[in-house]
Write a structure and sequence with these properties.
With 354 residues, the chain is of the alpha/beta class. It is 38% helix and 12% strand. It is built from 14 helices and eleven strands. The chain has helices at residues 4-29, 38-45, 50-55, 62-70, 84-87, 92-102, 118-127, 144-150, 166-169, 172-185, 209-214, 232-241, 264-274, 339-345; strands at residues 77-80, 109-113, 133-137, 159-163, 191-195, 222-226, 247-249, 278-280, 298-299, 308-310, 315-316. It has an eight-stranded parallel beta sheet with strand order 1-2-3-4-5-6-7-8, covered by helices on one side. Strands 9-10-11 form a three-stranded antiparallel beta sheet, with no helix packed on it. Strand 10 (308-310) and strand 11 form a beta hairpin. It is globular and about 85 Å long.
């Protein structure tokens, strides 16, 4: 048995440890976030989407608000991603303009999902003269005419993404004009992404409209064209005229088929692809693809058939399936539960009045 003095010593040590833990907990609870060094605050902000900063971190305290508003470096590379449900509750165009304004002319990269229309592109061209990267995702408010006009104002652009923007990715007869303008207006372009949600076979539309225009972008280093209509001929034109390509992604471009071609053209096409460091072919896995992938829609072979069918899912286009691939953006946003609160603190320019 331990002696009484030893037992008292053990109880005293346990008591001191408990007291120390209590003091530490109290100190942690009493941390004054307003006294955090600026570098620490900016380190926190750099880990957030810029919507989080505008709608949450910006409202913590005066020092955090000053850091969010008065440090242009924080807004040099702007990322505003989110769900469709959020875009119907707040003015994402107004928020995008606010974010660009805070960059004080230093914005070099902008990525917006549901956060871009023609008016915003005009504002961006005026406020971000040094823009090098522009990514527009699901921006249905961007029109063909607006984009064609505004893209001329970004001569330093090195990266451009147009993903699931209907006016720019769906209407082939207009895309040719858009991309011809793009090749001339942005001579430094090195990375180009043009992505649709699903492949749709259209026998009455010329397949290589996009490909011929992309072939004029001679300095491209990487190209992603998901679910595009290009064929073997269009791919050959791109490979012939873009000698610096290091990465090529043509997944779900089902008009490209090099496997069944044994002639000299097919061999030449395969050889050119083999010289590119990274190539993703039409039927390669889409597990690592960033967006929801819709079922491909192929034209039926017989005139009297359904019109389109989806071989991977086994039902005609237009019929209900048990599990749809087209609802990837319908789930509630993580912000929506608190939007009533945000309506009270957001500037009027960032609100949507329904």
């Amino acid at each position: 048995m331990p002696s009484p003095s030893r037992r008292r010593g053990a109880r005293h040590r346990r008591s001191r440890k408990k007291a120390a833990a209590t003091v530490a907990a109290e100190q942690e609870r009493s941390v004054n976030w307003a006294e955090m060094p600026l570098d620490s605050i900016l380190a926190v902000f750099h880990k957030l989407d810029h919507i989080d900063i505008l709608m949450g971190a910006d409202q913590v305290c005066h020092s955090w608000r000053r850091a969010a508003r008065d440090e242009p470096v924080l807004w040099r590379r702007i990322v505003m991603r989110g769900k469709a449900g959020l875009s119907s509750r707040i003015n994402r165009q107004g928020m995008a303009c606010a974010a660009v304004h805070r960059s004080a002319g230093q914005c070099e990269a902008f990525c917006g999902e549901y956060a871009g229309d023609d008016g915003f592109l005009l504002y961006l061209s005026e406020q971000a003269p040094c823009l090098k990267s522009l990514r527009l995702i699901s921006c249905s408010g961007v029109s063909f005419d607006g984009f064609a006009e505004m893209i001329r104002r970004f001569p330093l652009l090195e990266e451009l993404e147009l993903s699931q923007c209907p006016a720019l990715t769906e209407w082939g007869h207009l895309q040719n004009e858009v991309f011809e303008i793009l090749g001339q207006a942005c001579p430094r372009l090195k990375h180009f992404l043009l992505n649709k949600q699903y492949f749709e076979e259209q026998r009455w539309v010329e397949k290589d409209i996009d490909a011929r225009s992309i072939a004029t972008m001679h300095k491209l280093r990487s190209l992603q064209v998901f679910a595009n209509d290009l064929s073997n001929e269009g791919l050959a034109a791109i490979l012939e005229n873009c000698p610096y390509l290091e990465s090529l992604d043509i997944r779900h471009c089902f008009n490209v088929d090099m496997d069944g071609i044994d002639d000299e053209k097919g061999k030449l096409l395969r050889d050119k692809c083999a010289r590119i460091k990274t190539v993703r072919f039409p039927r390669d896995s889409t597990d690592d693809y960033e967006f929801e992938v819709g079922s491909p829609r192929f034209a039926c072979k017989e005139i009297d058939d359904c019109g389109y069918y989806s071989p991977d899912y086994g039902y005609p286009w237009g019929l209900e399936s048990e599990e749809s691939d087209d609802d990837g953006y319908s789930s509630p946003s993580r912000y929506e539960a608190d939007l009533d609160k945000y309506d009270k603190v957001l500037p009027r320019s960032m609100r949507t009045f329904l």
